[in-house]
Fold VOC family protein.
Amino acid sequence: MKVIVTSIFVQDQDKALKFYTETLGFVSKHDIPVGEFRWIALVSPDEQDGTELLLEPDNHPAAKEYQKKIYADGIPATMFGVTDIHKEYQRLLQSGVKFTMAPTQMGKLTIAVFDDTCGNLIQIVQK
């Protein structure tokens, strides 16, 4: 068994699609209308047949509450791996991304946390 799809709640699918593709560099794999929303799945440009990230609308009350509470507590909604966290940190800063935690060594890992502008904190990690 392996993870093929994971999702993240977003407040605005269009804004999230722009941020995750134009700023973070993910590639759109699916963008299919489903009622009033869309099935938007992104992949890493390096693994286009890899795990898909769904930009899930947070319109359900439980989703909104969950998203607000973990954000308020400073808990990242998900984690993305990077090969050079300091380089990625600088690139994202130059793109206007707001970090809540600069790259920080934690044992064998270095992590940083940023705001995705769509209601989430996102953690990046270099192993």
About this structure: The chain has a mean pLDDT of 97. Residues 5-126 form a domain with the 2,3-Dihydroxybiphenyl 1,2-Dioxygenase; domain 1 fold (CATH 3.10.180.10).
